[in-house]
Task: structure prediction
Amino acid sequence: MGSTANGKNGTWRNWGGNVSARPAREVTPASVDELAAAVRRAAEDGLKVKAVGAGHSFTSIAATDGVLIRPQLLTGIRSIDRENMTVTVEAGTPLKRLNVALEREGLSLTNMGDIMEQTVSGATSTGTHGTGRDSGSIAAQIKGLELVTADGSVLTCSEKENPEVFAAARIGLGALGIVTAITFAAEPVFLLTAREEPMPLDRVLADFEELWAENEHFEFYWFPHTGNTNTKRNNRSAGPEKPVPQVKSWIEDELLSNGAFQVANWVGRAVPATIPAIAQISSKALSARTYTDIPYKVYTSRRRVRFVEMEYAVPRAAVVETLRELKAMVDRSGLRVSFPVEVRTAPADDITLSTASGRDSAYIAVHMFRGTPYQRYFTSAERIFTAHEGRPHWGKIHTRDAEYFSRVYPRFGEFTALRDRLDPDRRFQNDYLRRVLGA
Result:
């Protein structure tokens, strides 16, 4: 899974299939020195430079017609510091490999998103997150960064070293340099008990504050055209370990969540009128279950059904109102939506362009099956999200620009000033960054 290495005629495509690019050349550096040399060479040739991870973003954040840098040789754990409980990893390491490697060392990240195909640098640079009452995004767990800047020099930053770069580069959008290594906070591996159960949407909205406050990790999926949700509560547990039995896991996670869901989406794409009836069945397909396992086996799930996605962070206090408006819009629109709406939370953090920067946030994600027209649904949803000063996920579909971001991010000017300093010639620019950061 991920982007195709070299599609037809050197065309690069993203995972969602909605973005493609034709770089002038591709480079796969095997060391930081080689990467720095590639950046300097690009400057001599007057070419822009972009690093691409697994292609999991739905925006054109990684697209370039210049030099495309692939990080697959820059992988693995560089070092583990057990005294300070940190782990330093090469930027191209996929999250799934990091999770397995940490497990072997008896360690874990505190929190993570639900997909683990992405590279650590791609996931953090776009602000990938899971859900958490007290623990934030993957980027919020970063303790140090190494990046190659536009002049080919290698810059390290942390709270103590180059703190102004550290404040911004943890979610740097690829605009400040190319991340080559990341130091994460780690902790001794622990167990989580997951409780998944259906719950009426009305009850979830009425009790949202309590559900959020009583659980370390609360999220839910609402199925449009129904009043049904599937809720997930993950909390730390003293054990014992009690994973989902393999056969049950295959039926629920593979057959229902991927196989049957894929078929349902094919039917829905061919005959949209069937979608509300399918939604009723889908929303009731998964029964309640409880299991206890190590973090990445609880947080993450396989996503085989391809989709496109828009996600906005709204102030947590506004989430119930925003969802009521979203439901009212879907109900009166005549839209046919076959994918559930996902709702998660994050505490405020101190990263300049984090979607949770300076405010407790709730995330609302809308999805459409790949290949179905999504514009009307996403446009209507975006209108609701922006009315609540929503901040879109940097790696998911949105239509916002620098002018909008300067209003919803109080520290936006801090980021653009740093970019002027680190990349005055816009070596790392592309069309997407021109739109979201300004020229």
Observations:
- Confidence is low (pLDDT under 50) at residues 1-7.
